[in-house]
Amino acid sequence: MTEYRQPVYAPPEGSADLLLIRHGESEPARPGVDFADKDGHGDPALHPQGERQAKAVAARLKKDNFAALYVTKLRRTHQTAAPLAGHLGITPIEDPDLHEVHLGDWDRGLYRIKAAEGDPTYHKVIETQDWAAIPGAETRAAFFGRVRRGLLRLAAAHSDERIAVFVHGGVIGAAMAIATNSEPFAFHGAANGSISRLVIQDGRMVVRGFNDTSHLEGL
After folding, report:
1. Strand ordering across the sheet containing 161-167
2. pTM for this structure?
């Protein structure tokens, strides 16, 4: 008798398999003390917990076959990628589009403080699902546009390959929202050190995983 078993998923021919890894926890914000600056963006280093998360990511992924590792211009992604890069002997490539959303006057740590204080402008950001209410901040449309551009460029460069992309919570949220056509902030808040997965073929994005933190248990 002929049998038709349930298939096991495999990325389709010509697609790129992207693991999106959020950087580890970064240093805390403190009133009156700005984070280091990188081209107008806050550039905090990893907190010791973030360093532990980075090592856990490396332990989880060190046996995978990656064609390349990518990071952003911000050092927390470089620091998170470093343990895996060391295991694999791969030098990460810096991507020009996948850095975190620019928060204007609230960058360099102030956004965290305003959020914790329940600032009315922060509530407007959440209600409108757009950072435009913050003076000088990047709009959702601009941010989502460059995230899409970056993802599609990486996918085009890595047909039939898997890559690891060390990015930011806002970038992961944008990528998932773009792929699913969901509300803009539906995937807001991926955990530090989490792994999400996108498969991209001919511009079409399919979500295969979001916010996997199983490797972080016990930290």
Report:
1. 93-94, 68-71, 161-167, 16-22, 195-201, 204-212
2. 0.96
